[in-house]
Amino acid sequence: MVQSRRRSGNYRCPRRAALPAAALLLFLLAAVALLYVSPPPLADHPVLASSRRRRSAHTLLNSSGAGSMEEFERREISRAPTNGSAVRDDLWGSKLASKFYGCSNSSSRFLDSNITTQPERYLMIVTSGGLNQQRTGIIDAVVAARILNATLVVPKLDQASFWKDSSNFSDIFYADWFISSLSKDVKIVKELPHIGGKLRAPHRMRVPRKCTERCYLNRVLPALLKKHVIRLTKFDYRLANRLQTDLQKLRCRVNYHALRFTAPIQEMGEKLIQRMRERSMYFIALHLRFEPDMLAFSGCYYGGGEKERRELGAIRKRWKGLHPNPEKGRRQGRCPLTPEEVGLMLRALGYRKDVHIYVASGEIYGGARTLAPLKALFPNLHTKETISSKEELAPFSKYSSRMAALDFIVCDESDAFVANNNGNMAKILAGRRRYFGHKRTIRPNAKRLYPLFLNRGNMSWNAFSSKVHMVQKGFMGEPKELRPGRGEFHENPPTCICERTDGKAVARAKSQDDQVLNSVADQGKGIGEPAVPNHTDEEAGEPDDDEDVPADKEVVDAEMVDDVLAGDPELEQILSD
After folding, report:
1. Does residue 455 share a domain with residue 378?
2. Which residues contact 392 (CB under 8 A, 6 or more apart)?
3. Residue 215 bridge partners (DSSP)
4. Of all helices (H) and strands (E), which one includes residue 124?
5. pTM (two decimals)
6. Total number of domains in the chain
7. Residue 204 near residue 233 (C-beta atoms within 8 A)
8. For residue 8, is it within any domain?
9. pLDDT, average across residues 296-307
10. In this structure, what DSSP letter does residue 89 have?
11. Residues 94, 97, 100, CA angle at the centre, nearest 5°?
12. pLDDT higher than 70, residue 177
C-alpha cells in the first residue's frame, strides 16, 4: 500500500517539513504589511529630497535676486560634517614613501669641472619674473654652462619687472654655498674677471625657449668662442625639458641642494614653521593665487555677480587678443579654484575642521569676503603676517622675493601642501616634495572637480566626498603617479627619484641636504628615466605632454595665450609664480 500511494502522485509531505515553509510565508507577509503601513519619510527619500533642493534653489533665486544662488551654496556647505573624517595617516603622507628616495649623484662618466671647463669662456644670464621663475632660470643656467664648458658668473636677478624687487642673488641665496657645492660640476665666479688684462663687454643674445643641447652648441657656442663672454637675457625656460641623465641629475643637485636661502631668510622661515607647529601637530600649507589681474586673464567667472563681471571685465580690456569663454575655461580645468572650492575639496578628502592652514598668497581679490567661505570650513587660517610681528617682517617686507621665500620655506616643510593654481611655485614645490620623501602634495584635478562643485547641491555630503576621492586619485603626490616625461622636469623629476631594491624601509635623514649628497652612491633603481630624443633640428623642443588629449576634445589655444602674454610682459611676470 505504501508503495502504491507514492506512485499515485497524491503523496503528502510530513507535518514537520511544512512548518518552516509556513513560517517563512507569514514573515514575508508581515514585512510587506509593515512597509505599506509605514512608508519612509518623504524628507529621507533621495529623489524627492534632491528635487526639493532644486526647488529651494529656484525659490531663492526668484525671491531674492542675483546673489541668491551664492547664498544657497553657502547654506549647502554647512551640510559638511563638523569634524570631518577621523584623522587618517594617509592624509599626511604616503605609505609607499619609504620605498623611494632622491638620487642625484653624478655617474663616473660625468667629468670634474677642472677637466671640462675651457679658459676664456664666460656665461652670464639675466633671470626673469618672480622668485620661483627666477629659480628655474638659475638652475638651467648652471646646466647651460656645463653644456658649453664655460664658467658661470653668478646670475643676475630680475630687478626691473612688475615685482620691483632690487634684491641681488646674494640677498636671497647663500652665494658661497652655491659656488662651493657645485664646484665639481661647474666653475662659478661672483664677478666677471678681466680677460687679457681688460674687462670685456658681454655679447648679448637670447636663445629660444626649450633650447636643446644641440641648440646651445649650434647657436651659443660659436658666439662664445668669438666673443668670450655671452649674456643670455630673459633667461626663463630656455633649456629643454628632456636632457641626458647626468644633466638632469645636475639640475636636481642645483635645485635641491645648491640653492639655499640666506641665513636671515631661513631663520625667519623656521620661526614661522615653529609657530605653526605650536598650534598643531600637523598643518596644511595653501598657495592661493587669486589676484585680480590673474583672475581677469583667466576669463573665468568666480561667483561674484555683476560687480565681479564689471571689475574683471575692465581689467580684461588691456588684452585685445583675449576672448574669454568662462564655461569653456571651467570645463577644461583652466580656472583657478576659489578659496571656497579648495576648502570643500580638502574637507571632502577627510581633513577636519580643526586643521590649521597656512595661507601663502599675494593680494586676494575680494579680500576677507572672498576668504570667508574657506574660513567657515577651516577657522584656523594663518599667514606670515598673523603669526609674526611687523618688526620681525620689517627686513623682508619691502622685497617681494624675500617675502615669497618665507612662504616657500613654510610650504616646503608643511605636512600637506595644496595650491589652487599650478604655477611655478606649486610645480617646484611638487618636485621638491617628491624628491624629499613624497610628502603629501595635492594637485586639484580642476577639470573633473568642476562638475562636482556644479552639482554639489544635488547630492549628499558622503556622495560628494566619495566622488572627490575618486577624481583626486593620481593627484595626491603618491610615488609614480605621474608618468616619466610628463610636465615640467622641476615638477616631476623621475631621473632623480630611485626605488629601493632591498625592500627595507630606511628612516628619513635629519637633514634634507645630507639625505642625498652624503649618502652612499645611488644603489636603487631609477623610476623610468625618459630617453633623450635625438632631435634633428637644433631648435627642436619637446611637446608639453601634460595630458594625452584626444583629437576630438577642446584644447587651449596656447599660441593665442603666448601672443597675448608677449604683448604684455608685466602680465607674464604676474602670472609666472
Report:
1. yes
2. 268, 271
3. none
4. strand 122-125
5. 0.77
6. 2
7. yes
8. no
9. 89
10. G
11. 155
12. yes
